[in-house]
Amino acid sequence: MKIKLRDEVREYDSGVTALDIASSISEGLARTAICAKVDGKLYDLTRKIEKDAEVQILTSKDAEAKMVMRHTTAHILAQAVKSIYPNAKLSIGPATNDGFYYDFEFKTPINNDDLAKIEAEMKKIIKANFEIKREVVSRAKALKWAKEEKENYKIELVNDVPENEEVTMYTQGDFTDICRGPHLRSTGYVKAFKLTKLAGAYFRGDEKNKMLTRIYGVVFDKASEMEAYFKMLEEAEKRDHRKLGPALDLFMFHETAPGMPYWLPKGWKMFNILLNFWRDVHEEHGYQEISAPIINNVSLWKTSGHWDHYREDMFKVMPENNGSEPDNAIKPMNCPNAMLIFKNKVRSYRDLPLRVSDCDILHRDEKSGTLHGLLRVRLFRQDDSHNFIRVDQIKSEFNHLFDLADSFYKIFGIKYVPMLSTRPADFMGDINVWNEAEAVLREILDTRYGEGNYQVDEGGGAFYGPKIDLKMYDAIGREWQTGTFQLDMQLPGRFGLTYTDKDGSRKTPIVVHRVVYGSLERFIGILIENFAGSFPFWFSPVQVGIVPVSEVHFEYASEVRKLLKKAGVRAEVDLSDNGMGQKVRSYQTQKVPYTLVVGDKERESRSVAVRTRDGKQLGSVSIDKFIEACKMLNEEKSLELVEKF
């Protein structure tokens, strides 16, 4: 059979494994190989390939291979737990973006002190280098195993496997688990790992289910990588927005509205600074901002397809007559309403691109166990837009969107990498249309960034079309998902949208669903951590704090504040009874960019004594020169403070 590799096509006997193929290429590749991708699907290295295929050998440098290593380590964790606690019940143990976890039901609760004992057992399993064997089994055999082992959670998981999917079991030593895989070829390939913490977790994230014990861990190819990771965690702890946000009086949460942030005055000021900047830029690029109802009849969500694909994540509004089916739902996204806006009047090809933006409040019924400060919420706003275009405008529109993203991220000093997400299993529409759309997006990315200079997430697209996600990197190297540009050739047709073309015919537009920042709540949470609360001057809710030396200087301090305010600078003066030193420290603790101290000398010379938030004393400067510096920082949206006037 013919196997297409990256640079060539080779012939092999049917039943060859990816490991055989790697060995035929080089000993080094066979030694470092983790898994393979066969026609876009991840395979164990020892799984047989029975027909012509495109094969890619993945090593620890590949993101998907890292996930396989993490998944295998989760199985090693489960084997160790079952060895020490035979009565523990297995639940699920997936890989995550930064490690792995496994959920267990323990007869007697364990605590963090037990992690060292489990780690020691895991090291024995790794040293034993057990071969990991994959077996395709019947549903009946899998259920028989789960019942004999009294693994109740596994029984439920097996019953939920779709009829058209095969059931697989993996065995290493005396441990067996039901799992889709793939896995490493043996336990000995796991190098540096550590269990990090315990947490409570409901089975499948549903609070109606029993609370289980979740054990988290991380694994790396090298010990040095693990050491760097924990140093990064220490830095991330200092930057945690859930601590900094309340400490800086930006936002709060309350038990009466879980996952729904309360924006405090300073935080809401930041929110509106970001939103107003966004509005100004979009106005320059011909965007038209709209607002639409927050609650819509279920019929709208059925037309859009969201009812079939997304209803479990929507808040429903039940009818007054206590009917069994909801008749309305609170919107989790803006796209269906944007379709109605387009359809509101007759459109011409001259109207396209039509860029309709909005920042309405959205609600999603996220599981309580997934909520995480501003990063995962139930109430949020997106810097949303739906750009209606013709087929011949796809390339120019996506280049416009990348230019927009470049300008928005640049002001925060943020770099990003695009990631193409392709057709998911539950895609909607004609597969040929999907293939055409994906080909266009690949061409755009190849032209703009160069072939191979972007990531690909096979099967990660939206149900209505492929998308390009923007993965940004913060100050300590963490990756975040922010913007997304989603090409949709399905939804306009479902809503019957048309425009009049040059020849007078009616044609269906294409729509690009796009956000640059994504959820504004989440983006601000990321910025809090990126800057550790020390925001650029233009973005700081309070830019200047003014400290009078004594009560006799209150009047001059208040005059300075008025002059700053007139110049568009956000300033406040501390007229409290606290001492001067305490007032200065308070502004520095609040990470206010500049603190101005004013006494007799400053009042007489019409000047201010300037200090930065990190304690640098910059000396006295005339109030006029200081105001000019502030105006420049605001206009240029500089990342750095001026330290020489």
Describe this structure in words.
- This protein is α+β, with helices and mostly antiparallel strands.
- The chain has four domains: 2-59, Beta-grasp domain (Ubiquitin-like (UB roll), Roll); 64-233, 2-Layer Sandwich (Threonyl-tRNA Synthetase, Chain A, domain 2), CATH 3.30.980; 251-295 and 332-530, Bira Bifunctional Protein, Domain 2 (BirA Bifunctional Protein, domain 2); 537-636, Anticodon-binding domain (Rossmann fold, 3-Layer(aba) Sandwich), CATH 3.40.50.
- The strands form nine sheets. Strands 18, 22, 23, 24, 25, 26, 27, 28 and 31 form a nine-stranded mixed beta sheet that branches. It has a five-stranded mixed beta sheet with strand order 2-1-7-4-5, sandwiched between helices. Strands 8, 9, 10, 14 and 15 form a five-stranded antiparallel beta sheet that branches.
- The chain starts with a strand and ends in a 9-residue tail after the last helix.
- The model has no long low-confidence stretch (mean pLDDT 93).
How much of the polypeptide forms β-strand, as a percent range?
A: 25-35%
Overall structural domain count: 4
CATH homologous superfamily grouping of the largest domain:
Bira Bifunctional Protein, Domain 2
CATH topology heading of the largest domain: BirA Bifunctional Protein, domain 2
Q: Helix tally?
A: 20
Helix percent band: 25-40%
| Number of E-type strands | 36
Q: What is the typical, i.e. mean, pLDDT?
A: 93
Low-confidence stretches: none
Helix- and strand-based class?
alpha+beta
At CATH level 2, the architecture of the largest domain is 2-Layer Sandwich
Could you say which overall geometry the principal axes of the C-alpha atoms support? globular
Radius of gyration: 29 Å
Termini separation: 73 Å
CATH class of the largest domain: Alpha Beta
